Amino acid sequence: MILDDTIAAVSTPPGEGGIGIVRLTGKDAIKIADRLFNSSKGKTLFDSASHRIIYGFIKDSSTGETVDEVLVSIMRSPNTYTREDIVEINCHGGMSPLRNVLELAVKHGARLAEPGEFTKRAFLNGRIDLSEAEAVLDLIRAKTDESRRIALEQLRGRLSEKILNLREQLTKICVFIEACIDFPEEDIELASKKEIIESAETILKELASLLKSYDEGRFFREGLAAAIVGKPNVGKSSLLNALLQKDRAIVTDTPGTTRDTIEEYLNINGLPLRIIDTAGIRESHDMAEKEGIKRSIRAMEDADLVIAVIDGSEPLKDEDIEVLGKTRGKNTIIVINKSDLLVHGKTASQLATYTSTILEVSATRGDGLEKLKESIFRSSVKNWEEQKEGVIVTNLRHKIAIQAAYDSLKDAIKAIETDKPLEIIAIEFRDALDRLGEIVGAVTTDDILNRIFSDFCIGK
């Protein structure tokens, strides 16, 4: 990547709004912006102190046309997001003024920014590490206050601090072992081996705790995918509407009304729930309905949680049993809907073979909905109250790196216990150190960076 050029992008969402921002960063950011800017008091941007806002107009020097009335923010390096000079041009929030201002910036020497390039420069210039850069994206995408809180904690460096501390402990072990390799006449004493193993096991416990936090923490980053399934006309769409408290899905008495999956987000105690209403599962010869049923089964297979709906106003039928059979092996909640019309004597023992969580709900009256929400939360996030105060791993990339470091440490301890050559032991400890380095960016490749920052929006 070229870091000595200047990049520009629109940093606000597309569409109409009160304000839209064109952002520039790089060594010529102020110079380029000054070519576009005309102060009402004759000031230049070079005259402005850092972190000040100046009122004026953006003009096209080639035509003399005034493009927009603006406020321009000047931020001089190194106290900026990228540690480079940054200019933010606050325009009126319409597509035309933003596009014209951006085009003028490019015309006068800036380059269009790539996705995530502002944050990538912040990382490459040492203002943030790689895990903090990823937290920026998590913060942008946070759908609940709890998701936002977790992302903000990582942006503040809580995970980085933990990883750097573990890397420091590993570095001390690596230095000692590699010193013994360089000076073979100084054999490692038994006491020293015991100390190394004890230190490695302490690190292992810390890594195991981080790995455990991922099992539940990831849902706050990615959202919990829950599929509502069942045979036609059991009230799946009514249940979706009741949970959302709005008419999102069409509800009729005609079986097969829902032909495709419908997705919405719901906040349950800070947990982003991606809830998916599916087409009724049954035998059908209608091509559109058959495709909807295929998508229902696929959604059920991919979901973190399955909410299987049974019609409580009628006895259990073969179609219900067929749907329940497809939930085996999945995290499942069975909802007996239409509890206000409940037929007594429903075979609870049959339902219990599929899951221990069976609830009675009336989607039309709202009975049992709060209990259902609590069951959804606890089905996937069982111990959150105890864990949420500690450092939490929510990113799959981090989890994979921590698991690899954990495995290498286990192999290192085994190598010491079986008197393997010091070179083998050193390789295992060094691999654990490098794996943790991948999380904060101490060890990285262009491929990793491109994958991470390509997910960002342009302008951040």
Please describe the structure with a list of short key phrases separated by commas or semicolons.
460 residues; alpha/beta; Gyrase A, domain 2; Four Helix Bundle (Hemerythrin (Met), subunit A); 3 domains; 7-stranded mixed β-sheet; 6-stranded mixed β-sheet; 16 helices
Describe the structure.
This protein has 460 residues and is α/β, with parallel strands linked by helices. The protein has 3 domains: 7-128, Gyrase A, domain 2 (2-Layer Sandwich), CATH 3.30.1360; 133-219 and 395-441, Four Helix Bundle (Hemerythrin (Met), subunit A); 223-385, P-loop containing nucleotide triphosphate hydrolases (Rossmann fold), CATH 3.40.50. It is built from 16 helices and 13 strands. It has helices at residues 29-36, 95-107, 117-124, 130-141, 145-155, 158-182, 190-222, 236-244, 287-302, 318-325, 348-352, 369-380, 384-387, 396-417, 422-440, 446-453, and strands spanning 7-10, 17-25, 37-39, 52-60, 65-75, 86-93, 111-112, 224-229, 262-268, 271-277, 305-311, 332-337, 358-360. The strands form 2 sheets. A 7-stranded mixed sheet has the order 3-4-5-6-2-1-7. A 6-stranded mixed sheet has the order 9-10-8-11-12-13, sandwiched between helices. Helix 11 (348-352) links the parallel strand 12 and strand 13 (358-360). Helix 7 runs antiparallel to helix 14. It is flat and about 80 Å long. The two termini are 17 Å apart.
